[in-house]
Amino acid sequence: MSVDAPMTVAYDRSNVFARILRGELPCKKVHEDEFSLAFHDIAPLAPVHVLVIPKGEYVSQADFGAKAPPEMIVGFWRAVSKVAHDLGLDPEGYRIVANHGPNGGQLVFHFHVHIFGGRTMSHAMGSMPKPDDAG
Ligand code: 5GP
Fold this sequence. Notes:
Elements: H1 16-21, E1 29-32, E2 36-40, E3 48-54, H2 61-67, H3 70-86, E4 95-97, H4 101-104, E5 113-117
Antiparallel strand pairs: 1-2, 2-3, 3-5, 4-5
Guanosine-5'-monophosphate binds at residues 16, 25, 27, 39, 41-43, 99, 105-108.
């Protein structure tokens, strides 16, 4: 199945995760392979808060899904699972989040997945209005 490239902002090579990938900024690395790099978030929101990023210029999850080669998509998502497993999160569970665009709260425009673990997450995800609140 082919997916049309989404309308999105252009990739900015000066974004902070691109700089981490190039080794220009440090990170607390937990995993690296040919497809991905995973490191601890600089401002953790849970006892475990790790970011997994692909090794490629993808702005968002939609950009990644539309443009990345299949082996990259598979390799990236397997890395997400491996990182969570290797961090010991499988038995108790964890949450993965990918913020997309302004309404999603995306701040860094290099696609990344957050892995949250080490505590029970709120059932509510964000402060989302109930469907019947919408005008
Ligand atoms: P977003 O809102 O884009 O999904 O999340 C961006 C995340 O990147 C935030 O959780 C933020 O704390 C993290 N972050 C921003 N700058 C840095 C940095 O220089 N190093 C690391 N390790 N994380 C960062």
